[in-house]
Task: structure prediction
Amino acid sequence: MKMSWLTYALMTVFFWGVYGVILHMGRGAMPGTPPNVTPEGAHAGLKAFLLVCVAYAVIGVIAGFVLKGRGSNFSYTTSGFSISLVAGIAGAAGALTLVLALGAASPIYKAAAAAAVMPIVFGGAPIVNSVCAMLLHPPEGGLKSLPLPFVLGIILAAAGGVLVAMYAPSNTGGGTAKAVNVSPAVEPKHESLR
Result:
């Protein structure tokens, strides 16, 4: 069965959408993380990242079998190999910095760190993607020729990422803090039992 590009794109949305939440859960389940904090907890993010790398390797081996099953002879060009390797490095660096962002957000947002980090990542990624694509393939007529809906989409992607990160219902650390009136506690007077 041949699937359309949109089906694959929506599958990617699903997998990458759950990725941050599951990754943060894995990081939080490593030894030394709350509630039993030890010095080993400082390594939790890198341990989670290491297992992400293992998962990539497993998927890579499966992809090799798929290529073989399709009759590929595994030939590569130097540029195809090099550019794809750079793409892999960019993806791996993104996975590493995501783990580091989740770890840095964890003391603030606790289990909801992914609710703060992932919208920034996925709101910002399409903007970076669009800028990179325009640098590689400049629009005819220059930046002045960009359609208004495209420019609005860029603005909305940025605003949406920030707003979702700040106001996600599961994000216990985000949003505007409500003012709480705390008056000093008055101890009740106790009569002496002398």
Notes: The chain has one domain: 5-167.
